[in-house]
Amino acid sequence: MSDHELQALRVRIDSLDEKILELISQRARCAQEVGRIKMATLKEGEEAIFYRPEREAQVLKRIMELNKGPLDNEEMARLFREIMSTCLALEQPLKVAYLGPEGTFSQAAALKHFGQAVVSKPMAAIDEIFREVAAGAVSFGVVPVENSTEGAINHTLDSFLEHDLVICGEVELRIHHHLLVAENTKTEKISRIYSHAQSLAQCRKWLDAHYPNVERVAVSSNAEAAKRVKSEWNSAAIAGDMAAQLYGLSILADKIEDRPDNSTRFLIIGNQTVPATGDDKTSVIISMSNKPGALHELLIPFHASGIDLTRIETRPSRSGKWSYVFFIDFYGHKDDPLVRDALEKVAQESVGLKVLGSYPNAVL
Predict the structure, then answer these.
(1) What is the pTM of this model?
(2) Residues 85, 140: contact at Cβ < 8 Å?
(3) pLDDT tens-digit readout, 29-79
(4) Cβ atoms within 10 A of the Cβ of 249, count?
(5) Helices vs. strands in the chain: H and E counts, helices first
């Protein structure tokens, strides 16, 4: 390519950048106008709803359908997510609670779902996230609910039994674990490895093969593990890219998770119900009598209506010894006629039915 051709391309890129800048500014002004109209049309006692999960999911899916490359659909959707996040902040910045401290996978999930423009607030425990949302101190919370390697996150399931909050969305995060060390770490003398218990379990085989005699210390989070390594010469941490960057650690071994498809699913909890988008999931809690065939009776209405169940988890009930509740996820929205009919039949057969929420299927 000649210098003349290269210069011509640079001029074209500059021209395109100017057009992109103007279009983003126009979009931002539209977002401001939306916020103004919402505030002007509020009735007395009403609270304005600025973030609409169903609208955002529809916009991102439409962008992915229209995309013709060369950027792939997910990359294009991520770009638009950030534009939407920044424009929404002009209406009202969202406050989102996540399982802290800074640098955890929960924070990464929050930023993936809401974009970088949110005000993210780290919490020390999952139950604290539920309490912050219930109290209205934050708009939404992000909580882990299941991992593809280790299964359900029981603290989250138990918190749904204690709090009346609505699931507003979900986000799936690909989990890459790295072995991290600090500048002062003597790598040949590592005697302990810190990480969250879930992460240690997800890297069990790798640790058995490479550090079989090293003590494994479970701590409250991967970010906490990274912080500890900063002040010790004989330890390492298992954590992700975000923690490595935040705490200035280097990667001694990358992607050490035992399963290459290791992912964690997070739920977005809030106080607002979400209208149907046409591609939704619903989560429910069902209490059944402790009798033979109880689970079979529970599943019949779903099967009869052709509803696809994606997850069933069992947890001890808080109401009595040796009684249990079922956490069930399935495709469809609670307002869909088939889903509504199935849930009515389940309610008749069960001791108790609680719809945790219907929400858009994860886009990214």
Answers:
(1) 0.89
(2) no
(3) 998 998 888 888 888 777 778 899 999 999 999 999 999 999 999 999 999
(4) 25
(5) 12, 15
Largest Cα–Cα distance of the chain, in whole Å? Answer: 81
CA distance 170 to 281: 9
Same fold, 178-256 and 273-360: no
What residues contact 84, with CB distance under 8 A and at least 6 apart? 56, 59, 115
Report whether 271 contacts 140 (CB < 8 A): no
φ, ψ of residue 134 to 5 degrees: the values are -60, -35
d(CA 309, CA 321): 27
d(CA 94, CA 83): 14
- The DSSP H or E segment spanning 359 is strand 352-360
Domain spanning 94-175+262-272: which CATH class is it, in words? alpha beta
Question: What are the structural domain ranges in the chain?
Answer: 58-92, 94-175+262-272, 178-256, 273-360
**CATH architecture of the domain with range 178-256:** 3-Layer(aba) Sandwich (3.40)
Tens-digit pLDDT profile for residues 210-241: 999 999 999 988 999 999 998 899 999 999 99
Tokens encoding 239: 């954590």
- CATH homologous superfamily for 273-360? ACT domain (3.30.70.260)
State the Cα–Cα distance between residues 129 and 110, nearest whole angstrom.
Answer: 13
Q: Which two tokens stand for residue 28?
A: 């931002």
**Residue entry with tokens 């809401």:** 114
Instruction: Give SS3 for 206.
Output: helix
Residue 361 DSSP symbol: P
Beta strands in the chain (DSSP E): 95-99, 119-123, 140-147, 151-152, 166-174, 178-181, 192-196, 215-219, 235-239, 250-253, 263-270, 280-287, 309-316, 324-331, 352-360
The whole-angstrom separation of Cα 360 and Cα 55 is 9
294 vs 95, 245, 300, 352, CA distance in Å?
41, 50, 10, 13
Count other Cβ atoms within 10 Å, centred on residue 37.
Answer: 11
Tokens read off for 222? 């991967």
Other CB atoms closer than 10 Å to residue 198's CB: what's the count? 20
Angstrom distance (rounded) from CA 247 to CA 250: 9
